[in-house]
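Appendix B, Record 12. Input sequence as logged:
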Amino acid sequence: MSKKLISLILVLALVFSIALVGCQKDEPAPVGGEADDKQSANEEKPKEPENPALARGNVLTFGESSLDGLFNPIMGSNVYDGYINDLIFRGLASNNTAGDPTPMVAKDWKLSDDGKTYTFYLNEGIKFHDGEELTAEDIEFTYYTMADPDYTGPRWSAVADVVGAQEYRNGEVDSIEGIKIINDYTISFTVKDVNAAKFGAGDFGYGILPKHYYKFENFEDFTALNQKPMGCGPMKFVNYVVGQYVEMESFDDYFDGRAKLDGVIFKIVPDETKAAQIQAGEIDVAQLTADPKQVEIATKSNLATIHQQVGNGYNYASFNLRLDKFKDKRVRQALMYGLNRQKFIEVVYQGYARPCNTAVSPVSWAYTDNVNKYDFDPEKAKDLLKEAGWEDRDDDNWIENEDGEEFTIMWTTYTDVEWPQKLIAVAKENWKDIGIQLDCELMEFTAVDNKTRNERDFEMYNMGWSLSIDPDPTGIFDGASDVVGGYNCGGFHNDEAEQIIAEGKLEMDTEKRKKLYQRWAEIANEELPYLFLAYRDELFAINNRVKNLNITPYETWVYYINEVEVEY
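Logged structural output:
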């Protein structure tokens, strides 16, 4: 499909009157005598389409609430940018729902007898969107970029265990010993230690960047292409209008065969209007806020059905553990006991979520329920705060430390969705009762991400995790991820937890790994690097014209885009 045709379809999708009722443009009134009028009256009027979405043609329109505009697989950090990256790019390998690795750019691989060297054999003839062929040099370039001293993205952990990567990142050497090009279609990675989580963590799943397009002298040159992506995936980037939409068209020469769709459009739709746009047929797919009212609105016209599943993730509020007031775990436990999470969940999710008490999802094979539930208990919270040296010393109902400093918290949050502000309202009320003053600062999601990961200038902030298949917490809670741009921006460090992370990677027996990660979950539950909030159900509203859209807790639908069809 041409770019002009996709652009026309996008315009049709965005114009309310056309998308809602499929009307044609007004025509001039008939000119003539009585006979002409009678003939006009007797003519059968064209029927309005039962499903207005059919008018959009062979293009899938996905409604999402926000985009960071980081359309680069090693720079993007949110789910929605991730959808776009996963359509434009493809990595060496992926995983199926059972957690087993599956081929992508690599047609096969082998692991050395000592379990430390991964050798990948690439499919020959894979083309990037500009027609250039993908080779091992592009694989090397992608992983070298993640180890570059100037790299500020969140994917350093994917290459951190490769022999020589740390020295390269430190500027001590000019090449990475553990990455070797064998020939144009063969490349190997040697890691320092056996890593049972290497595939499951997605370390070989990040999209491959074409070296000839992304090579850079200064890292600013590299990031300048964040909104001009090019990969080898099933969809080619066409256009991005900030705050409105991203437009893609199917890549005719995709190595796994051209998609059945002619294109995909990601339309920016506020959370509060997604259900209404689904109801009207203005968008084909959207992940809804877990709210019965939204479900009712989305399905009212009988144009859509709801796919519901327990998500492989959770919502959380992170502490800055570098601050003195949060260093004592009794304080963090008090804040957990002092927060009525159940009330928050009932108000916001209304049956579509349950309290979260640790960092492993219920859908994971490593999940354990043998942890402290932190039921709402303000009196216990007060006792813990007093043990930690915080009490009301001047009878003004606010607690102070020994130096007379009141306990105040500034909570940084974003305005893109509603639940954080509702949570903060509950926390402000609850924590006032235990003597803590809470205030918040509001900004867009991108600003929060920058303030926390890059500037690391915060006291508390909230976000949500969508987790990988493997329960290994590397990249989120390990010490190596406590770097500028890393996800351990709260600064969590625990010796036993670090030891378990290391042992979990070395252990190839799944049952033994399970016990290790369940112990890790117990540590997270006790130490509370986060206020663990809620395990969310995921609700996707899908127009009835959409067929073969595969959604699971472990895989995003974009990996199966070639199977998706729409009626039109």
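The longest strand covers residues 530-543.
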